[in-house]
Fold each of these.
Amino acid sequence: MSKKLESLKNFAKTLHDTLVSDRDINIGVGGMTGEGKSVFMTQLIKEYCIISNQKFSFNCMTWEREELLEWIDGEKEGEKQKYGGQIPQFSPIIADELISMFYKRNWYEDEQKESVELFNKCRDRHLLIIGGIPSFWDLDGGMLNRIRFYIYIPYRGVAWVFQQENNPFSVDKWNARENMKIFRKKKVPYYCPNFLCELKYDDLDPQTKQEYYNIRNTKRKNTEGQNKKVKPERKIKAITQRNTLLLELWNTGKYSKKKLGRMIYMNDSQICDVINGVAGAVYDTYTRTDGDKSPSLSPSNTPPAQAPEVPE
């Protein structure tokens, strides 16, 4: 099978035509760090803007999930605009680091679940949303299903385009395992069932590249650590569940305090506090009992007045 070469312009026109036909376009761009994902996304969106009669600007680039969601759905009820509000239909959005918005290990976050749900409902907004991520498969599972095209950058200047399989019986519409085996054998993507085409693209000119660096260094810095926030109520719930499990195990009579400590990284004194129901026996960090220099453990200064109920 020979590779199918397509121009960036024609592919951009396909994207625009798809949006006009009342279908959504979400694109994930993967590849090794530094191989040109941001350059490719910028060049593709510039072509799209020409076709859709829009002026390209790096103002369409974001690193923050809250900003992305406001652009899609507008500000939340009762809240003021923070990022300019809802953007017009057929606008492009570049999420330069999609991993920080939809990382699969954060699937339990309410904000992330709400965001994935929004992506399932925003087809009528007719937006072209494209995001970069070093490993495409690190995306939240719900988000993976919302991606229409997966584009991989093997090296600078070349992009391989894959699409979901339109098969009513397919459990994995990306056929990840099958494609992996075929690529490992053939060393090229052209035999993969999900392969669509290959694109070529140029590097950014010096002025455009500097504009990108300027906005990246400003906006990305402001969003560092956005996924490291833990809501107090979620922390309390997790600790309560841990303590409930500890008590269940202790009551079986099969586990000593030392064994329990090794299992959940708590020392004998802390285990005793939980077992004896000592007020304030809530710990948000731990000390390893095997000599490992992990963060030290200290009781919460403000114990909960009443522990939340743990679901069955």
Note: The chain has two domains: 5-223, 230-303.
Amino acid sequence: MTEIHINEFVSSIRAVDPMLSPQMVERIVCEVLKAVDERQEYRQRVNAERRVTSGVRDELEGES
């Protein structure tokens, strides 16, 4: 069993293709974590944009 520690994530891998080295598994995990981080950042930007848009809309509706 291989145990991998990356940032705050800890995972145990019980079965690995024998063609994958531990370095390759770590590289795959790093790429997945990077994609997860990018997705979270995107969602945060979308939510921030929604708050700005809602605030502007509320301001415009208040002027009417």
Note: The helical segments are 22-63.
